Amino acid sequence: MTEQKYSLEHETAVLGKDGLAIQAGWIKVYHSNQITREFTNSDIEYVMLGVSLSAGAYPDAPKLPDSHDKAVCRSEDGKCWEILPDYRGKIAYDTLTREPQEITEIGELPD
User: Fold this and answer.
1) Out of the domains of life, which is the source (predicted)?
2) Which sign, positive or negative, has the C-alpha torsion 15, 21, 27, 33?
3) Domain ranges of the chain
4) Of 8, 18, 29, 104, which one has the greatest count of Cβ atoms within 10 A?
């Protein structure tokens, strides 16, 4: 069998255990906001040999939550995706002052 002269497929990047490309090419990545760690979008990136993914990009796909009151975020150590409570835009009441406060951040409510 002879090698094809042309190909309709793109080269796929391969990442080593250290996160650097051991084969240059294209790879699907999943981005997180660098401040909130919330999943933002997926994209296709070209990775050169010996280079890592762009900041905030990860090669593993997140599992999507089954309800609107959950958010997909990268873990604090950056090793995996996690599902966290998302009460943003809702009103909570301070347990000491009983003052209403709009929730603006992802995660569990403080006591």
Assistant:
1) Bacteria
2) positive
3) 14-102
4) 29
